[in-house]
């Protein structure tokens, strides 16, 4: 009996751990506390590293900085170990066996940043030399903040999506630098051999000019040199504008795609809200958060605690029921059963097309339903019919028990 209970408890613990570390803290005080503590530690430890570089400050507050470093490294190490252990619960790796899920997580960009945050401390066990590179690695923990900032995640996504266009502008820019350095080498070599004795030496001037920096340490003195410089400056403006434009446009698109605006018509289209008056629609709009997800993403995982319900603004999802999948589309909602019954999620819900969801957190739902009991009655009716459908289905309980066992065997079986 104990043996059977153990994996179930372990899976629950692993899910909870993953939720606390990775949920974004929505609707859960403990998760918000964990996130708050980690963000504070990142900021404190980065500030300590920076201030420590000043010899006077280091002499006065060295003990405090050392204490911060110990606490930070200990906390980040525990965090890394827990993230690795709970990786099989990650939505992106939900279909992989536990070991593969952990390997995939360990190779992800955010896990590598997590590792870099603790690496200097781990390396210092083996290395006694004062390696400057360790200082840079300690500062890399600053990027741990990216996990908590949708804005930084958007920038990374944009750079990733536009990497080919950006690489192309980089190549063209390099070509311009090369060409202009060669031209300058030809026209200024005799007048200023100390600055323009070769093409590589002339490139220092070309890079400064193309980047519109112009330190002024190297300037053309001949008429031909000034003409080359003028052309280089104009080309610099044009060439630098290109990547800026590419990133700005892609960033605007990414923001729109990720946090699409919750519009009146979107809310009013949902049959559930069709009878609401204008002020009630305005009220619910304030509570709804927008979320976009790609096909295949697991929106709701069976057995997880419930903190929100979802309205489908666009796209389709599949409810993975024991008796076969059910599809829900635009205007329909899901995730209400666990919220109303105060149970864990009763089924997996997966996006099968790109989807746009309107998310309503549990607290806001209850506030809204107190003021709009009619909507509450209709949500309750739908929840009841879904629960009844599940109960009527062939050997419902048996199938659920089988699924639980299969789920646990596949998730908890491996180390
Ligand atoms: N038979 C069903 N038909 C449609 N949706 C369902 C059915 N059973 C469960 N669901 C939805 O799947 C969701 C899984 O999470 P919840 O249990 O919170 O709420 C559940 C319902 O919204």
UniProtKB/TrEMBL annotation:
Compartments in which it is found: Cell membrane
Pfam families tied to this protein: cNMP_binding, Ion_trans
Transmembrane segments: 33-51, 63-83, 103-127, 165-187, 227-251
GO BP: any one term: action potential
Keywords recorded for this protein, A-Z: cAMP, cAMP-binding, Cell membrane, Ion channel, Ion transport, Ligand-gated ion channel, Membrane, Nucleotide-binding, Potassium, Potassium channel, Potassium transport, Transmembrane, Transmembrane helix, Transport, Voltage-gated channel
GO CC term (a single one): voltage-gated potassium channel complex
Domain (Cyclic nucleotide-binding) ranges: 272-386
Similarity field: Belongs to the potassium channel family.
Protein name per its UniProtKB record: Cyclic nucleotide-binding protein
Organism ancestry: Bacteria, Pseudomonadati, Pseudomonadota, Alphaproteobacteria, Hyphomicrobiales
